[in-house]
Amino acid sequence: xxxxxxxxxxxxxxxxxxxxxxxxxxxxxxxxxxxxxxxxxxxxxxxxxxxxxxxxxxxxxxxxxxxxxxxxxxxxxxxxxxxxxxxxxxxxxxxxxxxxxxxx
Length: 104
Description:
Blueprint: H1 14-23, E1 27-30, E2 33-37, E3 40-44, E4 46-52, E5 57-65, H2 73-94, E6 98-103
């Protein structure tokens, strides 16, 4: 039996962050960036890269987008921080060339 894991809904500011990255010269490579943990998939909101002319290399990032709009700002921070720590560990294993950011 195959388990299907649906992608979560995009954050309220997802498109705003994506547009800002593009305007800053980033190329969006993944929307979302898929991470595997065991047999399950997790999704970081955006993956992007930028060609650095001076270094003649690429800088790669992953960006989690979070809005703090619930009735409990503390719960929002707990959720965002927990997700960030989990994603950071997985990205270090799967995509060591990427730096993880949290857009709030």
